[in-house]
Amino acid sequence: MFKYQKYNYALFGNPVHYSKSPVIHSLFAQQTGILHSYTSINVSLKDFYPILYNFFQKNGKGANITVPFKQEAYAFCTELTQRAKIAKSVNTIQKIDDKHFLGDNTDGIGLLSDLIRLDFIKKKYSILILGAGGAVKGILFSLLSFGCSVFILNRTIENSKKIIIQFQKYGNIKIFDRSLLDIKHFDLIINATSNFNQEQVNAISLSLISPKTFFYDMNYQKNNVFFIDWCIKIGANFFSNGIGMLVFQAAHSFLLWHKILPETDYIIQFLNKEKNILSKQERV
Ligand code: ATR
């Protein structure tokens, strides 16, 4: 569409071939009329720093970082936004000059924006988060500062404990304890595991769920729909995949780079139709 590209933007990760980020960013470019060349670059851990550095020494102006390099990106940056500092994880980098790089984390605002769009979140909600990996570190500060109480349920208890220590100063966060089983209905359940499976289903008693419980899957890949299938199986009334979070986190990266927050709703609808996994909230 554009005759020349002054600066380049790219997604770094492994794997990145499945990523929808290049499509999303090209739609942002069309919508805003901003020159914005955005590609995806698959890298190995060994090559991550040299390739990223080289990118910025050429025409690279901004980068998104996805799994498994968000911690490496955090170490790469010379300056950090408050939310990246708290998450200790970076998904967006902006080049300041040849030696200075600002790291941000837009995952939390991405998730929160989508939960608000869906009307899945209110202050004081009790949220059960499944998982305690890097993805959870990116979202906790946003949920806690919004005023929600968070419970963590994870396969490896040590990882849950580390997350609690890192985030307890920002709000009400606890390890999910089986003693809560009979007394607590969650308002919202978020799947942040990379592999939700039968073992986790067994750990979630149906007494934790009410007809009003919202379910959100941070995954959006077509081959990873076990959580959404489970929502359908148990008759959940409100559930959604994570396409909206993906689009909103991209929008906030675009905002950091270009000082404009693009419109997102039509892109979320477009991607959901393309993937043919509409959330139930959007179907009714
Ligand atoms: P990410 O950085 O994307 O969050 P991750 O660090 O690999 O990815 O973490 C993924 C989460 O999914 C973790 O909470 C992990 O649980 P552990 O802390 O026990 O490793 C969870 N997870 C991954 N595979 C799992 C499986 N087969 N069963 C249950 N949980 C799993």
Secondary-structure map:
Elements: E1 8-13, H1 21-32, E2 37-42, H2 45-57, E3 60-65, H3 70-76, E4 79-80, H4 82-87, E5 92-97, E6 100-104, H5 107-118, E7 126-130, H6 134-146, E8 149-153, H7 157-167, E9 173-175, E10 188-191, H8 198-203, E11 214-217, H9 226-233, E12 238-240, H10 243-258, H11 265-275, H12 280-283
Parallel strand pairs: 1-2, 1-3, 4-6, 7-8, 7-10, 8-9, 10-11, 11-12
Antiparallel strand pairs: 3-5, 5-6
The structure holds 2'-monophosphoadenosine-5'-diphosphate.
Residues 67, 131-135, 154-156, 159, 193-195, 197, 199-200 line the site of 2'-monophosphoadenosine-5'-diphosphate.
Structure description:
The chain has about 280 residues and is α/β, with parallel strands linked by helices. The protein has two domains: about 10-105, Rossmann fold (3-Layer(aba) Sandwich), CATH 3.40.50.10860; about 110-240, NAD(P)-binding Rossmann-like Domain (Rossmann fold). Helix content is about 40%, strand content about 20%. The chain is built from twelve helices and twelve strands. It has helices spanning about 20-30, 45-55, 70-75, 80-85, 105-120, 135-145, 155-165, 200-205, 225-235, 245-260, 265-275, 280-284, and strands spanning about 10-15, 35-40, 60-65, 80, 90-95, 100-105, 125-130, 150-155, 175, 190, 215, 240. The strands form two sheets. A six-stranded mixed sheet has the order 2-1-3-5-6-4, sandwiched between helices. A six-stranded parallel sheet has the order 9-8-7-10-11-12, sandwiched between helices. Helix 9 links the parallel strand 11 (about 215) and strand 12 (about 240). Helix 1 packs across helix 10 (about 245-260) and helix 5 packs across helix 6 (about 135-145). The radius of gyration is 19 Å and the shape is globular. The relative contact order is 0.14. 2'-monophosphoadenosine-5'-diphosphate binds near residues 67, 132, 159 and 195. Its EC number is 1.1.1.25. One of its GO terms (molecular function) is shikimate 3-dehydrogenase (NADP+) activity. Pathway: Metabolic intermediate biosynthesis; chorismate biosynthesis; chorismate from D-erythrose 4-phosphate and phosphoenolpyruvate: step 4/7. It catalyses: shikimate + NADP(+) = 3-dehydroshikimate + NADPH + H(+). Involved in the biosynthesis of the chorismate, which leads to the biosynthesis of aromatic amino acids. Catalyzes the reversible NADPH linked reduction of 3-dehydroshikimate (DHSA) to yield shikimate (SA).
